Amino acid sequence: MSESAQSSGDHRIAHVALDEATILWRSADVEQERRIAIYDLIEENSFKPLRAAERGASGPYRLKLAVADGRLALAIADGEDRLLEELILGLARFRRAIKDYFAICDSYYQAIRKATPAEIETIDMARRAIHNRAAELLMERLEGKVETDFATARRLFTLICVLHIKG
User: Fold this and answer.
1) Which of 35, 72, 86, 89 has its CA 20 to 30 A from that of 144?
2) 91-101 tens-digit pLDDT
3) Which pLDDT score is estimated for 118?
4) Nearest-angstrom CA–CA distance, 31 and 37
5) Range 26-32, long-range pairs (CB < 8 A, 24+ positions)
6) Dist. CA 46–CA 145, nearest whole Å
7) 139, 157, 155, 165: which is closest to 48 by C-alpha?
8) Which DSSP state fits 19?
9) Cα(137)–Cα(157) distance, rounded to whole angstroms?
10) Domain that holds residue 137
11) pLDDT tens digits for 18-55?
């Protein structure tokens, strides 16, 4: 770790968990997406919970995501798993993005099995566009609460979608 990273704190997620009680069912495709999103998130992310940082906390952080009563709960803990803060975000503004993302992912998974490369590429471009818009929305919702980058927001949105699978 560079000296500047040490002096400013290690503002990143080192561990992420999903509330398994929230997740009722996962297909093999969804499980693969979840594994990749978590792996990529842990490998490279930028995540600075502003209130905790103002109180002197620095990462790396442990993050637990859950959905309850139409809200996303982000429990942010330190490396020893002491809760630093819990953020609650209403999910109403995400409903359309989640619904669209599920629909396009279904199309994508079906296309992989029987479509032409050009058809798959077209569906994948649409999937990335929906994912990007949702990541931008997540960054807006986290503004003033958590500083993060676009790639981290994209991976977090994937995990939010996993929490919404009802089978």
Assistant:
1) 35
2) 999 999 999 98
3) 93
4) 10
5) 26/162, 26/165, 29/105, 29/109, 30/162, 30/165
6) 13
7) 139
8) -
9) 9
10) 3-163
11) 987 766 556 777 778 788 889 999 999 999 999 999 99
Q: What gap in Å lies between CA 59 and CA 10, rounded to an integer?
A: 5
DSSP 85-143: EEEEEE-GGGHHHHHHHHHHHHHHHHHHHHS-HHHHHHHHHHHHHHHHHHHHHHHHHHT
Query: Is 123:104 a contact under the CB 8 Å cutoff?
Result: yes
ω into 117 cis (within 30 of 0)? no
Task: Decide: helix, strand or coil at residue 61.
Answer: strand
Among residues 24, 48, 12, 34, which one has the least CA distance to residue 155? 34
User: Which among 95, 81, 71 has a CA at the least distance from the CA of 16?
Assistant: 81
Q: DSSP 3-state assignment of 73? A: strand
Q: How many domains does the chain have?
A: 1
Say what the pTM is: 0.86
Mean pLDDT score, 51-68: 92
